[in-house]
Amino acid sequence: MFGRLGTSELVLILIIALVIFGPAKLPELGKALGRGLNEFKSHANKITEDIKEEDSDEKQNKDEEKEDK
Questions:
Q1: How many domains are there within the chain?
Q2: pLDDT tens across 35-54, in order?
Q3: What is the pTM of this model?
Q4: What is the 3-state secondary structure (H, E, C) of the chain?
Q5: Range(s) of the domain holding residue 39
Q6: What pLDDT is attached to residue 68?
C-alpha cells in the first residue's frame, strides 16, 4: 500500500509538519519521536533475547531428557 518514501515526499511531509507545528515545536517532537523509537527498539531486543533464552532452555531440557532415557 505505502511504498518507499522518496526525497520529494519527505520534503513535503517536513514542510507540512513545519506549517502545522511551527519551528519551535519541531525539535521537541523530533526528540520525543527519537526517544520513543529507542525505547521501542530496546524492548523489542529484550523480548527477542527472552525468546532465544527460553528456546535454548527448552532445547537443553530435551537433551537432558534424552540422556536420562
A1: 1
A2: 999 999 999 999 999 999 99
A3: 0.59
A4: CCCCCCHHHHHHHHHHHHHHHCCCCHHHHHHHHHHHHHHHHHHHHHHHHHHHHHHHHHHHHHHHHHHHC
A5: 24-68
A6: 67
